[in-house]
Automatic annotation (TrEMBL):
Annotated metabolic or biological route of this protein: Amino-acid biosynthesis; L-arginine biosynthesis; L-arginine from L-ornithine and carbamoyl phosphate: step 2/3
Segments traversing the membrane: none
HAMAP family referenced in this protein's UniProt entry, alphabetically: Arg_succ_synth_type1
Keyword Protein transport found: no
EC number: 6.3.4.5
Pfam families per record: Arginosuc_syn_C, Arginosuc_synth
Name of the featured protein: argininosuccinate synthase
InterPro entries: Arginosuc_syn_C (IPR048268), Arginosuc_syn_N (IPR048267), Arginosuc_synth (IPR001518), Arginosuc_synth_CS (IPR018223), Arginosuc_synth_type_1_subfam (IPR023434), AS_cat/multimer_dom_body (IPR024074), Rossmann-like_a/b/a_fold (IPR014729)
Length: 490
């Protein structure tokens, strides 16, 4: 919908059809009314000038009735929504669409061609969602009307350049969420910007709804990396309102409807996690059903014998599992398997979405839970008290920025530089015990450990003289002592 221009006394007169003598006598009242409407924020449309002018004339004598004004505005907006949008959609040359092969993105392909007169290049990112999700995509895309499908393997980039920095920063959103989807969106959007440049596209598009966080994450990345790209978000424009509407549209345009069985849950999977939303989970009082989980076994069904795993860490980033050095993606994949069979990493939470509403989600993050525990425990050896406190406070803001889609914000990048600098000495090994859904630390070691047994021992030592504590306590407690003296009149 176009922006209305503010009504002035002149524009309201110009919008009127050729006036009769009776109409002319009401011009002054109309002008006065338009001024009043300006104060209320009422705006006009070139396509509906006659309608708005007529409303102005009718409301001149009842301008105190605000509910009447609101009703007219709502009516005009409805009319413009249904008629004006198609007229105002600009002609695009080529659009890169974030494509999954599901019903929604399959329908978006012909919708873009129909409404923007453009070629559509489908783009799929492999971020570890599983090989089955990638099968037959090219045939589906072309059958839907796409001119090309581009697939990029982003698993190593995703883990090494997005997940590991969040891990090093200790970024957790609202005490629980390990940011699985939040980290995946910017790496996908960045690749879309790259593909748009490679194929000469002038626009990008996504299938995110207008209620979720992902629309923000995609579009902020587009803005940051190429502000000249047009962005098309069909769910905020089209008349399709649900699955049945989408199926009907697909049939009308000869688009093959995916025959996969529709899940009762809305899921998002990548190498870091698997999220579940919808169905019975929409009521926070309902316990998740066991058959919903896909990455982890039930803790009660996990092995009765614990398993020990040793994580090697260099400068705050994991590099090995049980002495075996692995690439970032391979390391995470292995820990997902290990943690999954012990029921590690199940989280059930109600979170505050960026768009304002609360939502309930259940997450499976087996490997990520193990890694977060390992890095945090090693920091207990290598970071001092003040540094840990500052790092923890910044981690909260870091997580908020990532959750809100501000990955390429200079603030997050600056905070990341701090995290990298402060964890240079966070190097060593952490041994963890995995048992029926729990992760327990059993050992930590580092060549940069600030822990000194000769100081911490209860035995007397030369570095720490226990007699020195008396003076420290007197000075440290002086403010409390002075306050007590004042209250007692001493």
């Amino acid at each position: 919908m176009t922006q209305f221009q503010a009504i002035s006394s002149c524009s309201s007169i110009n919008l009127l059809p050729r006036a009769s003598r009776a109409e002319s006598s009401r011009k002054t009242a109309a002008a006065s009314s338009s001024l009043h409407l300006q104060e209320l924020g009422v705006k006009e449309s070139g396509f509906h000038g006659h309608s708005i002018a007529h409303c102005i004339m009718n409301m001149a004598s009842t301008r105190r009735n605000k509910s009447a004004i609101q009703a007219v505005l709502a009516s005009d907006e409805e009319a413009i929504t249904s008629t004006e949008r198609k007229v105002l959609r600009k002609k695009l040359n080529k659009v890169v669409l974030a494509y999954s092969g599901g019903l929604d993105t399959s329908v978006i392909v012909p919708w873009l061609r129909e409404n923007y007169g453009c070629e559509v290049v489908c783009f799929t990112a492999d971020v570890g969602q599983g090989i089955k999700e990638l099968e037959g995509l090219e045939e589906k895309a072309k059958a839907s009307g796409a001119c090309q499908l581009v697939v990029k393997d982003l698993k190593e980039e995703f883990v090494g350049d997005y997940i590991f920095p969040c891990l090093r920063a200790g970024a957790i959103y609202e005490r629980k969420y390990l940011l699985g989807t939040s980290m995946a969106r910017p790496v996908i959007a960045k690749a879309m910007v790259d593909v748009a440049r490679e194929v000469g596209a002038d626009a990008v598009s996504h299938g995110c709804t207008g209620k979720g966080n992902d629309q923000v994450r995609f579009e902020l990345t587009f803005f940051a990396l190429n502000p000249e790209l047009n962005v098309v978000a069909p769910w905020r424009e089209w008349e399709i309102r649900g699955r049945e509407d989408a199926i009907e549209y697909a049939k009308k345009h000869n688009v093959p409807v995916p025959v996969t069985k529709k899940s009762i849950y809305s899921r998002d999977r990548n190498l870091w996690h698997l999220s579940h939303e919808g169905d019975i989970l929409e009521d926070p009082a309902n316990e998740p059903k066991e058959d919903m989980y896909m990455m982890s076994v039930s803790p009660q069904d996990a092995p009765d014998k614990p398993e020990y795993v040793k994580i090697g860490i260099v400068a705050g980033l994991p590099v090995s599992v049980n002495g075996k050095e692995l690439s970032p993606a391979s390391l995470l994949s292995e820990l997902n398997e290990v943690g999954g069979r012990h029921g590690i990493g199940r989280i059930d939470m109600v979170e505050n979405r960026l768009v304002g509403m609360k939502s309930r989600g259940v997450y499976e993050t087996p490997g990520g839970t193990i890694l977060f525990t390992a890095v945090r425990e090693l920091e207990s050896l290598t970071l001092d008290r003040e540094t840990i406190q500052v790092k923890d406070s910044l981690a909260l803001k870091y997580a908020e920025l990532v959750y809100a889609g501000r990955w390429f914000d200079p603030l997050r990048e600056s905070m990341d530089a701090f995290m990298e600098e402060i964890t240079k000495t966070t190097t060593g090994y952490v041994t963890l015990k995995l048992y029926k859904g729990s992760v327990t630390v059993t050992g930590r070691e580092s060549p940069y450990s600030l822990y000194r047994q000769d100081i911490s021992s209860f035995e007397s030592g030369q570095i720490y003289d226990q007699a020195d504590a008396a003076g420290f306590i007197r000075l440290y407690g002086l403010p409390m002592r002075v306050r007590a003296m004042l209250e007692k009149g001493i």
